[in-house]
Design a protein that fits this description.
Helix 13 packs antiparallel against helix 14, helix 17 runs parallel beside helix 19 and helix 32 packs across helix 34. The protein has 966 residues and is of the alpha+beta class.
Length: 966
């Protein structure tokens, strides 16, 4: 409110007092005449939800008189009033009169009030201060000492993210709890922030006079007649130059599409926020309050109510709502919820049901309270049927209820006062907050304060029984010179957000959320409680981070030297934040608590920076080398800086060269660095054969041990042989044989194992292996000779002759085809006839088995014929037939089933022709020859040793072979 406006109100108040003194004498004479009416008026207050009959009779005419259809605008309504003469006469008389009350009652009330004012004026200043101090000593004790704010005020160090340091301050600088410091501190319920941005600029040049909130924006009216639409951060969205005088009230429809304003210039203006619509209504007197129907944005339902000093409540543009008594008082406040309209005049609060076009009730002004022109009555619909009333230093909560219909009559609504209490401060605003109430309290002067200097306003949370839950004193700009009427309170109940408005300032109070609770705990070093509660409600946190809270807790534990507890909490508090892990690992290492933190350090999910793991290993190198070696076994080498660790360990080894633990650590690190030779040398030096072989096999280091075969065999022959046999591709048998020639027993074990695994792998060394078997394991020699084809028969026979290994000689002679000598050896040297018979049968069976592997025995004769006549078995493109048997003897034995036929064949070869063989005199089928004996013998020898092939197909005629060229 501007200074001019406050001055004008003050002048009106003085004129009103003078009028009251004049009227007092006149109305005393009528006291007795209206005594009965006085008693009826005193019973008029609502008790228990039902009014007295006297009240019903007195208000009957007014209830029956609904909104009058008096035309389309205020001019027509004003004409009607002029014709009836309802409001003609002195304006001050209208303000003094109470409708329906006897004049002597009015005189008594005014006399008491006048005496009180006169006594205050006559009372010395110090006595007044003492009286005020006695009355308000409880509030004064807890009120914080206010400090005057100036333009050079420094920015609060704790303020974060404020764009304007003069307009957005931390809540602690705006509100303080009025509790004694010695008492146990309670957590505040609200937090505060000064609204800045565009608001700062607006209120530097204008004074705020009205405010209204919508879920989407804030509307601000000023004493200069402007209306500003702002977002909740104080940024201007739109403005209207709607009036030429102070804006008294604002109203916004539920959809947020229209805003209405009223002013002392006598106008009501309705603007569309998203359209160019604008309607203006002009009246003769200042309009103090208005309310839009919540459904105003719907076409055909554009109703609004307004009222002011003209003493009229206008229900939209259709007419006036007046009382039957023709005595109309000024309307100062209007509140509309659903179909219910509540308004305040000089005598009380009235509630009208727009749906039924009936007034429901009248709630009188609390006795002893100031008139609404001196102390505004605050109306607030908490729900569609619950009205909060704050008038001067009284609070009432009224609830609209409905009586059941009886005797065919329509259900009637009535009002029940469900709460009523007196305060020790004046009410500048009232709002619901869940089950409690939020009251903007204007505190009377404290003892010791200079006259005319106001206290800071307080935002109090009280129960509906007036039990105070919290109280915060607010540092509003220029509060020292402001009155109770200069403040406004607007709220968004859904978000528990409250806007406290003064002419030069807007402060936003919000219900403290969980983040604010956590901040309060942290400020008081209640870290464990903060962490526990933050973990339980992590999803609710918005500004805080659980990890940040955890860090503060860890810091407190470190400071208290609770290292083990701090380390054990790291996985829970640091979670998967690698950077935080790096930070705290470094902290533990610097205070020499690396052993405490190491068991909890994650190796993956997250994997920390390489530097973190390296730092830990360095600490163990200095303090505990065995623990270092253990970690090198457990940790993947990719985690840490291997080369850095090698350099550090080598430096230590240089000082302690015989320290086996350090050497093993160096070997492990060398392996990790790919320096396998260095690692292997260290293992061999330490005679760690198992580690050496594990190293070779695990990392496929066979190429690195070519020159160390003998050394490996020396440590563990069995393991060395197994390893060498397993890697013939990496370490060739020739390379192994060369290194083991001086270690024949090891060489024998190697070649024997190699032959068992792959008979062809060491084929080049089979003749050497025959010697080794003869030297180290004769029992395996015969088996080896029978399985291998990679040795010279003559050499094998000679070795066996020299060592008189007769069974082996028989086998070799048999393979050479010298069956007669073999049989002679069996019969003469070994004198083993059964063995000789077995030998002959074995020779036949060996050849038969070789054929049976290819075709069935039923086709043996055909197969022999094909082989001898040149029929296709394995022909190539040139038609050549390759003999598939190792010698002719095998083929004949297969055909004739008699090994002696070979002798007949040999004899025929010597005589120069092939003829009938022995054993029955039959000729070998399909075989003819014309050559001489020498040629036949040579041919037979060639056939016997190498087989044969058809060189000329012309020799094949009539299923027979002709000529000698075969």
């Amino acid at each position: 409110m501007s200074d001019q406006e406050r001055s004008r109100n003050g002048d009106q108040g003085e004129e009103m007092e003078e009028g009251e003194e004049k009227e007092e004498g006149e109305k005393k004479e009528e006291g007795e005449r209206d005594k009965d009416e006085e008693e009826a008026e005193q019973e008029e207050e609502v008790t228990g939800g039902e009014k007295k009959d006297t009240d019903a009779d007195r208000e009957k005419g007014e209830a029956e008189t609904g909104p009058v259809a008096a035309g389309e605008n205020s001019n027509m309504a004003e004409s009607d009033r002029d014709e009836e003469g309802e409001v003609k006469g002195d304006e001050e008389d209208d303000k003094r009169d109470y409708p329906g009350e006897p004049h002597d009652v009015n005189l008594k009330v005014m006399a008491v009030r006048l005496c009180s004012k006169l006594s205050q004026r006559l009372q010395p200043e110090e006595n007044q201060s003492q009286a005020r101090a006695t009355e308000d000593q409880n509030n004064a004790a807890g009120t914080e000492k206010c400090e005057e704010e100036d333009e050079d005020e420094e920015e609060d160090e704790d303020e974060e993210g404020d764009e304007d340091e003069d307009d957005q301050e931390d809540g602690d600088s705006l509100g303080g709890d009025d509790e004694d410091d010695d008492e146990e501190e309670e957590e505040p319920r609200l937090k505060y922030q000064r609204l800045g941005n565009s608001v700062s600029d607006i209120l530097k040049r204008e004074s705020a006079s009205a405010v209204r909130l919508h879920d989407k924006f804030l509307a601000l009216g000023t004493a200069e007649g402007w209306i500003y639409i702002l977002d909740f951060d104080g940024n201007e969205i739109r403005r209207f130059g709607a009036h030429t005088a102070v804006v008294n009230d604002l109203s916004i429809d539920r959809a947020g599409e229209f805003i209405a304003s009223c002013s002392d210039d006598g106008t009501v203006v309705i603007n569309g926020l998203f359209s160019a619509e604008c309607e203006s209504f002009t009246y003769q007197r200042p309009v103090k309050s208005l309310a839009l129907d919540a459904k105003f944005s719907r076409k055909g339902n554009r109703h609004f109510a307004s009222g002011g000093l003209a003493g009229q409540l206008l229900l939209n543009e259709k007419g006036w709502f007046t009382s039957k008594d023709k005595v109309i008082h000024a309307v100062y406040s209007i509140a509309w919820a659903d179909s219910l309209i509540a308004w305040t005049n000089d005598v009380g609060v009235k509630i009208f049901d727009n749906a039924t076009n009936q007034r429901i009730t009248y709630i009188d002004r609390p006795k002893g309270s100031l008139r609404p022109d001196a102390m505004k009555c605050h109306l607030c619909w908490e729900t569609n049927n619950t009205l909060l009333i704050g008038w001067a230093d009284f609070v009432k909560i009224a609830q609209v209820k409905e009586r059941p219909a009886r005797d065919g009559m329509q259900a009637a609504k009535y009002v029940e006062i469900i709460a009523f209490f007196h305060t020790d401060y004046f009410i500048s605003g009232l709002a619901p907050m869940g089950e409690n109430l939020v009251i903007l309290a204007y505190i009377t002067e404290e003892e010791g304060k200079s006259k005319g200097q106001a206290e800071r306003p307080e935002l109090r949370i009280v129960t509906r029984n007036n039990d105070e839950l919290s109280s915060d004193a607010l540092s509003m700009h220029g509060f020292e010179k402001l009155t109770a009427k200069d403040y406004h309170l607007a709220f968004l109940e859904s978000d528990s957000v409250f806007f406290i408005v003064s002419p030069r300032d807007i402060v936003v109070a919000r219900q403290r959320d969980f983040d604010d609770h956590v901040t309060w705990l942290l400020d008081r070093k209640l870290f464990e409680q903060a962490v526990t509660e933050a973990e339980e409600k992590a999803s609710v946190l918005k500004r805080h981070k659980l990890q940040d809270i955890g860090e503060k807790y860890l810091g407190q534990l470190i400071e208290a030297r609770e290292f083990q507890k701090a380390a054990s909490l790291c996985p829970r508090l640091l979670r998967d934040n690698g950077s935080l892990w790096h930070k705290w690992v470094d902290v533990f290492c610097k205070i020499h608590q690396h052993a405490v933190i190491t068991p909890f350090v994650p190796l993956r999910s997250p994997q920390l920076h390489m530097e973190s793991y390296t730092t830990i290993l360095m600490c163990f190198l200095e303090a505990d080398p065995p623990a270092l070696l253990q970690l090198l076994h457990e940790w993947p080498h990719s985690l840490y800086d291997v080369q850095k660790m090698i350099d550090a360990v080598k430096a230590r080894v240089a000082k302690m060269p015989e320290d086996g633990t350090l050497l093993q650590s160096l070997a492990r690190l060398s392996v990790s660095a790919g320096k396998y030779n260095e690692a292997l040398d260290i293992f061999l030096r330490l005679r760690c054969s198992e580690e050496a072989f594990d190293l070779i096999e695990k990392f496929d280091l066979y190429s690195f041990v070519k020159g160390k075969v003998a050394s490996l065999a020396k440590f563990d022959e069995d393991r060395a042989v197994k390893m060498l046999v397993g890697c013939p591709d990496q370490i060739s048998p020739s390379y192994v044989v060369e290194q083991l020639r001086d270690k024949r027993s090891t060489l024998h074990a190697y070649l024997d194992a190699l032959f068992d695994k792959d008979p062809r792998a060491g084929a080049n060394f089979h003749e050497l292996q025959i010697e080794l078997y003869a030297d180290f394991d004769k029992s395996k020699l015969l088996s080896f000779l029978s399985q291998s084809n990679n040795y010279r028969l003559e050499n094998a026979l000679k070795l066996c002759e020299n060592r008189k290994l007769y069974p082996e000689m028989v086998f070799v002679l048999g393979r050479m085809g010298n069956t007669q000598q073999a049989l002679r050896l069996l019969l003469e040297q070994m004198q083993d006839v059964p063995k000789a018979i077995e030998f002959c049968q074995a020779q036949a069976q060996r050849r038969a088995t070789r054929i049976d592997g290819r075709v069935s025995m039923s086709r043996r004769e055909e197969r022999t014929r094909c082989c001898l006549t040149g029929a296709s078995l394995t022909g190539d493109a040139s038609g050549r037939i390759l003999w598939p048997y190792p010698d002719l003897e095998a083929a004949l034995i297969d055909h004739c089933s008699d090994p002696l036929n070979m002798q007949a064949l040999m004899g025929a070869g010597k005589s120069g022709k092939l003829q009938e063989g022995a054993s029955g005199g039959g000729q070998a089928p399909g075989v003819k020859g014309t050559g001489t004996g020498g040629d036949g013998a040579a041919a037979a020898r060639i056939i016997f040793q190498k087989g044969f092939q058809i060189k000329d197909k012309s020799l094949y005629k009539d299923g027979m072979l002709h000529g000698r060229d075969w």
